[in-house]
Amino acid sequence: MTKTVVLCGYETIKDALINHADAFSDRPITPVTDKLLGNNGVVFSSGENWKVMRRFALSALRDYGMGRKAIENKIIEEAECLVQKLKSYEGKPFDNLTCINAAVANIIVSILLSHRFEYEDPTILRLMGVTNENVRLLGSPWIRMYNSFPSLMDWLPGAHRTVFGNIREFQKFIRATFTKQKKELDVNDQRNLVDAFLAKQQEGKPESEYYHNDNLTVLVGNLFAAGMETTSTTLRWGLLLMIKYPEIQQKVHNEIERVIGLAPPQMEHRKQMPYTDAVINEIQRFGDIVPGNLPRATTEDVTFRGYFLPKGTLVIPLLHSTLRDKTYFEKPEEFYPEHFLDSKGNFKKNEAFIPFSIGKRSCAGETLAKMELFLFFTTLLQNFTFKPTAGAKLDLSPALGATNSPKPFEICATSRK
């Protein structure tokens, strides 16, 4: 049995992931990830392959997304499409999962493929469907059983077979897409991340051996799932918390009216909106989307805080322990935006707020995610007052899955314009 170490508390996690970054930078090999992904992509790979794919992903996300005015404009446009979709419900109850997922998915799809899907497009509905189903099932006992008894479970029915089938279907779509793009490729006019990867294949440099089709297939799947799931889940937590705490929603409305008025929200507004900024941070803290982070593995024998950890030790940095730490958050079990405000109402950072993790394995899309959260959230709150359905019991306990997502809920959006 693999030895496992759980890291609790901000200081301990920071010590491991920052001060001993190299020693804690691998991913453990599990039967499920090995069968599905091998040592490909960026999320679950290790060693030199991970280093090359991480560098490429950060570079491509920067070139085609993060921090660029073009992607900010794309998010603003997509947010307006989402507003029109919500207006079509005319204040009647609706399930917000599909439309929010689709809006967020369109941003990462534009970076990966230079494409946008209509919210009812069967292709994006299917891709989101298999992704959401896998996120839910990957937290199930079936997967834990598979990781313990893979040879036996290969012969048995169960949710693990659904997960494997979903991954195969998703990868089939990715392969068909990049095969088509390869035929159209102009290395002097790279339109998106897939084009940039295909161009790398042709460079003939020592690193080119890592730019093979299996890595591209898994990398695109990694970025789609990570780019859609966590951001859309955070937005859905945001809507649930706004209808749970209407007085907080009203304060956000007031700040939007005072700072932005009727103009489209832009990133330059954020520094003038400390309360809204604090609310978004608190949504992330309270929602606690990835409480156990993704597991790490030690790359070498290491002595850490007096304990000897052999190479290959499985390490779980428990982000939940930092986001609920009383030392850093006055009311850790409550939704309390004042965690991120000083006595004068100015925004204040909190070093224990690490929802994107820290160190060499921190979220590659953190900058993009922050941009999406601010622009989507403020645009929705600018345009609508969100209310619960009649007689609804608002449950803030998370659904079972690989991430902490809200349980399904319907919502009413009343237009404010």
Topology of this protein?
Blueprint: E1 4-7, H1 10-19, H2 31-36, H3 47-64, H4 69-87, E2 94-95, H5 97-113, H6 122-137, H7 141-148, H8 150-153, H9 159-184, H10 193-201, H11 213-244, H12 246-259, H13 274-287, E3 296-297, E4 302-304, E5 307-309, E6 314-317, H14 319-323, H15 366-383, E7 384-388, E8 398-399, E9 405-406, E10 410-415
Parallel strand pairs: 1-6
Antiparallel strand pairs: 2-10, 3-6, 4-5, 7-10, 8-9
Helix pairs in contact: 4-5, 4-15, 5-11, 6-9, 9-11, 11-12, 11-13, 11-15
Family: Belongs to the cytochrome P450 family.
Main location: membrane
Keywords: Endoplasmic reticulum, Heme, Iron, Membrane, Metal-binding, Microsome, Monooxygenase, Oxidoreductase
Describe the structure.
There is one protein chain. This protein is mainly α and 417 residues long. The protein has a single domain, classed as Orthogonal Bundle (Cytochrome p450). The chain has helices at 10-19, 31-36, 47-64, 69-87, 97-113, 122-137, 141-148, 150-153, 159-184, 193-201, 213-244, 246-259, 274-287, 319-323, 366-383, and strands spanning 4-7, 94-95, 296-297, 302-304, 307-309, 314-317, 384-388, 398-399, 405-406, 410-415. The strands form four sheets. A three-stranded mixed sheet has the order 1-6-3. It has a three-stranded antiparallel sheet with strand order 2-10-7. A hairpin with a 5-residue loop joins strand 8 and strand 9. The longest helix has 32 residues, at 213-244. The mean pLDDT is 95.
